[in-house]
Amino acid sequence: MATTLAVRRPGSRLKRRNTLLGWSFILPNFLGFALLTLIPVFALFYIAFTDWNAFGTADWVGIDNFSRLLGDQSFVTALLNTLYYTAFHIPLTLGLSLALALLLNRKLRGVAFFRTAAFFPYVTSIVAIAVVWNMLFSPEFGPINQFLTAIGISDPPGWTTSADWSMPAVIIVGTWREMGYYMLLFLAGLQTIPPELYEAARMDGANAWQRFRNVTVPSLRPTTFFVTVMLTIGSFKVFDLILVMTNGGPGQSTLVLSQYIYNKGFVENQLGYASSISIVLFLICISVTVVQFLINKRSDD
Amino acid sequence: MATPHHAETVTRPAADIGTPSTRSSGHGPAARSIGRVLGYLALAVAAVGVLLPFFWMLMSSLKTNNDVFTIPIQWIPETFVWSNYVEIWQKSDMTTWLKNTMVLALAVTALQVFTGSFAAYGFSKIRFPGRDVLFLVYLGTIAVPWQAYMIPQFILMSKINLSDTLWSIIALQAFGAFGVFLMKQFYETVPEELSEAARVDGLTEYGIYRRIMLPLSVPALASLTLLTFVNTWNDYLGPLIYLRSPELWTIQLGLKTFVGQYNAEHALIMTGSVLSVLPIAIIFMLGQRYFVEGIATSGLKG
């Protein structure tokens, strides 16, 4: 419409030049990004409606995969386990990383060392971490149960060997691994709070708790929002840690959505059905993120 | 402020985040020193909680197999069994695994840093129609978990015959949105006047990118380099899905199969774990301020 007219406007040559120039910068990355991320994301919505095994062809089956999901007890278990992990992992990590950040924002000797140390588990490989923690959790001779026995717990849990305790064990390790990362984000947020706000609150006679409640918490809101969104996405896609620590077991006690996708797709070669589970995961993550953005926006106004 | 030692003497990381900005207690000296003691106590508990698993891993890697699990716990081995570190090279393909992982991490990092910073320049310094929508698409994919599209991606990679080659991991990791996002955050902080002046002096956009932006962004590039290298080094799921032939295995895949194969050799398993973590630990110690900066910039503006 307006484009044919725009050619004659004086700025349009510059505009075209800029478009070419801009794309020339973006293209090397975009080619890879489009081929390996965008196309697969769109293809997902086609494959989920087919019956596709690894080397065969795709047969359109409509919503069959999705109606099969409804009656699939393992899928329901995986969904519930994912929610279980999410429900405990998010508040635990949020609370601990904020507490650590508040602690390390003080003038104490050794904070610089600790700031670095707390972040180390996050850059260490999941395989090494899972292997070490599995040994620490070892029911009979493991250091953790020896400690629990020493403080008077006569019947310590079996951790990764018990269906009731395997998920708590995984949550503990997940929280331990990630809290240093979120602590850094909170520390960065704390740094942006002007000290005058605390001075003013102190003048008004606010005690430490009131200053935390009325200055720190409101000022940290953008950081808390970002951390919550990242934690949510991270919790819904939890996988590698569980795969190495418990492989979904014992029984199906730690089977989560991502692992169920992996099992159906790469172990049983049911690529179509696995894609329909992927869509569920995709929709959960997107809608949770959108809802969080909406809530954040409303409280901004 | 009548504290005997000056709190300012505490060594700080070069990154300016995390510099204490508030005093937590405005009460009398008694209350202040109680707060201080409690602070140190909390710090000590947290430090032990975070670091003990690593200490136990390191110490167990130097024990005999029977000494890893004892009652009571033996924190420091009676005799250090250094031979574990020789034995593991004889029992496993450690050399192959480390070589593959190194090749992948270097290739992915080089591509991610180059294409990411190049695209970030286009996104932040050149104005053209559709740019902001395109960037939103990039951002949007960060909210989509990889596990949701790993199946179609695998089908695609198989169709172009890349699965079971090291190329698959390079393609998978090198073009992520993360590098673009991190570098764009940095370029936006560079004042526009700088590029304007360079344009007036006759530099092309490519010239501005190479002669002005790249030198200015060395700290951000260092952050991106370290984070990408570490991520690729530690990746387990990508290699698990794509690298089926043992001669292509990375250290993470190798370590996992080693654990499965020698599951009673506790000390040796810890030795392998230490070896898989060691390169990362060294890089982390050398470049910790860039890790902190990278995380802080990529995290601040959601």
Could you provide a short overview of the structure?
The complex is a heterodimer of chains A (301) and B (302). Chain A has helices at 3-6, 12-47, 64-70, 73-104, 111-123, 126-136, 143-150, 166-191, 195-203, 208-219, 221-236, 240-245, 257-267, 271-300; strands spanning 50-51, 59-60. Chain A has 301 residues and is mostly helical.
Comma- or semicolon-separated keywords:
heterodimer; A: 301 residues; mainly alpha; two-stranded antiparallel ribbon; 2 strands; B: 302 residues; globular; disordered N terminus
Describe the protein in words.
The complex is a heterodimer of chains A (301) and B (302). Chain A contains 14 helices and two strands. Chain A is mainly α. Chain A has a two-stranded antiparallel ribbon. In chain A, α4 runs parallel beside α8 (166-191), α4 (73-104) packs antiparallel against α11 (221-236) and α13 (257-267) runs antiparallel to α14 (271-300). The longest helix of chain A is centred in the N-terminal third of the chain and has 36 residues, at 12-47. Residues 1-7 of chain A have low confidence and may be disordered. In chain B, α2 (84-91) crosses α13 (266-286) and α4 (131-142) crosses α7 (177-187). The two termini of chain B are 38 Å apart. The radius of gyration of chain B is 24 Å and the shape is globular. Chain B has helices at 29-60, 84-91, 94-125, 131-142, 146-159, 166-174, 177-187, 192-200, 205-216, 218-234, 237-242, 251-261, 266-286, 288-300. At the A-B interface, α2, α4, α5, α6 and α8 of A face α1, α3, α4, α5 and α6 of B.
